[in-house]
């Protein structure tokens, strides 16, 4: 069951602007270079591109389930343009195929779900539910407008350098109105309006009601969570007995079981130039390598960074030193995303260099800091943070994660099964020629097409999770 509103909002990230709107959606947005301005489409706006074929359906039902080209193309062209893909470029052909299939599947699924919503009496939103829809819609509109702020200021001759937020209220009003104008020009290029976006968001809320109804009785018991964790612990132990590397490669294992004598560390890496390390590493791996000569080369490179490494060690071992702060200042391995992270080191040789392994397990107690550890990539300074073990608190947190993952998986399986059942009852057929889609049986062995499907789904998912537009 695909949700569309946030994804549609987020894919406003493209910087291209469209103006004008003709009677045919195929000639909309002709200044972009990413929509179908070339004659690669045979369909007309009112052509039916998806329809129900089941004999059990009434004529009224069959008419309801129809999807016309003018329903499909605005969403498709809007999506592909905002990912910056030119569908007339052969390099993007597989991606374009995937987006077309995703959009038509989404539209037909929506038809099915909204029909079921009516049958279940879930097609009307309460005042409270509609208020939530309108609140989210208004917030998203505000974000969409703001994404055109720079263009609006430029169009009005207002400086874009002033970020103080001190513009007078008159200017603020002019900027907002211009943002709205630019936004509406942009979506009009696809045959869309703000009302279309509100309809999408409303439909999404209705689909959520149906989904919640279908999944209301799905639960995960404590015993199921216990069984999952017990099995994972057994797997972790078996993997470790087989080889420490087998254990280390699965990040889930350490959440339920950690071998004895493992340690958590933090480290500072003062690295030599990456090109020098690559050269040394390549020499090590050559047949008949002269380790003495390579060590000499390495020591020359280590000498070049020795002063910096000494300074880092001095700061790290000073009374009251903030080790994390020294990592940030000196470590070539530092990144904001991993700042403060503790590294699990298993008491098993072969997973890290012998020099690092020996230094880590030579430290006697938590809080101890090593001296400079010379390696082929540079100097390391290691801090023994704590003994590694899975605490009751860790297990409690992981139990919550497992419960949610099991629940989500079970819900997804049921949703997919029910949706497939509904699709089978309706028996949708597509006009692949007018949709410019190669039939699935003809692309099933096409690895690039499969990759493109994955990319399209991942990007749509990513966009849906962000829910905010930026056109700058």
From TrEMBL:
GO molecular function: peptidyl-prolyl cis-trans isomerase activity
Keyword Isomerase tagged: yes
Keyword Metal-binding part of the UniProt annotation: no
Comp. bias regions, Low complexity: 445-472
EC class name: isomerase
Coiled coil spans: none
Keywords: Isomerase, Rotamase, Signal
PpiC domain mapped to chain residues: 296-386
Catalytic activity: [protein]-peptidylproline (omega=180) = [protein]-peptidylproline (omega=0)
Any single Pfam family the record assigns to this protein: Rotamase
Region (Disordered): 439-472
Annotated signal peptide: 1-22
EC number: 5.2.1.8
Designated name of the protein: peptidylprolyl isomerase
Organism (species): [Eubacterium] siraeum DSM 15702
């Amino acid at each position: 069951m695909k949700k569309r509103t946030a994804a549609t909002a987020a894919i406003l990230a493209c910087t291209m602007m469209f103006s004008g709107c003709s009677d045919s959606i195929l000639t909309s947005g002709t200044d972009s270079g990413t929509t179908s301005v070339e004659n690669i489409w045979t369909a007309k706006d009112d052509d039916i591109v998806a329809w129900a074929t089941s004999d059990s359906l009434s004529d009224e039902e069959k008419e309801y389930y129809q999807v016309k080209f003018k329903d499909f193309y605005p969403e498709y062209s809007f999506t592909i343009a905002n990912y910056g893909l030119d569908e007339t470029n052969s390099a993007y052909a597989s991606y374009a195929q995937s987006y077309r299939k995703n959009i038509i599947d989404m539209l037909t699924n929506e038809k099915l779900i909204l029909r079921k919503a009516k049958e279940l009496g879930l097609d009307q939103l309460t005042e409270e539910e509609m208020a939530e829809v309108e609140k989210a819609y208004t917030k998203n509109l505000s974000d969409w407008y703001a994404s055109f702020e720079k263009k609006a200021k430029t169009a009005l001759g207002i400086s874009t350098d002033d970020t103080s937020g001190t513009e007078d209220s008159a200017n603020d009003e002019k900027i907002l109105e211009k943002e709205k104008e630019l936004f509406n020009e942009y979506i009009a290029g696809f045959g869309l309006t703000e009302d279309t976006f509100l309809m999408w968001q409303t439909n999404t809320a209705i689909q959520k009601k149906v989904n919640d109804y279908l999944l209301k009785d799905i639960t995960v018991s404590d015993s199921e969570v216990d069984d999952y964790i017990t099995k994972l612990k057994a797997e972790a132990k078996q993997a470790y007995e087989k080889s420490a590397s087998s254990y280390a490669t699965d990040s889930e294992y350490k959440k339920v079981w950690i071998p004895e004598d493992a340690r958590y560390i933090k480290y500072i890496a003062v690295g030599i130039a990456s090109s020098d390390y690559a050269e040394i590493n390549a020499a090590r791996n050559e047949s008949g390598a002269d380790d003495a000569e390579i060590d000499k080369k390495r020591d020359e490179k280590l000498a070049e960074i020795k002063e910096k490494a000494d300074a880092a060690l001095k700061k790290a071992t000073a009374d009251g030193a903030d080790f994390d702060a020294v990592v940030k200042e000196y470590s070539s391995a530092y990144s904001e995303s991993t700042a403060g992270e503790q590294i699990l080191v298993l008491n098993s040789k072969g997973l890290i260099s012998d020099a690092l392994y020996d230094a880590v397990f030579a430290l006697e107690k938590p809080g101890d800091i090593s001296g400079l550890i010379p390696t082929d990539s540079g100097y390391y300074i290691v801090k023994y943070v704590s003994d590694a073990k899975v605490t009751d608190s860790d297990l409690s947190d992981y139990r919550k994660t497992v419960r949610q993952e099991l629940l989500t998986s079970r819900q997804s399986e049921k949703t997919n099964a029910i949706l497939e059942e509904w699709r089978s009852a309706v028996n949708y057929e597509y006009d692949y020629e007018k949709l410019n889609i190669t039939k699935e049986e003809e692309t099933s062995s096409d690895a690039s097409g499969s990759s493109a499907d994955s990319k399209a789904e991942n990007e749509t998912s990513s966009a849906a999770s962000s829910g905010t537009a930026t056109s700058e």
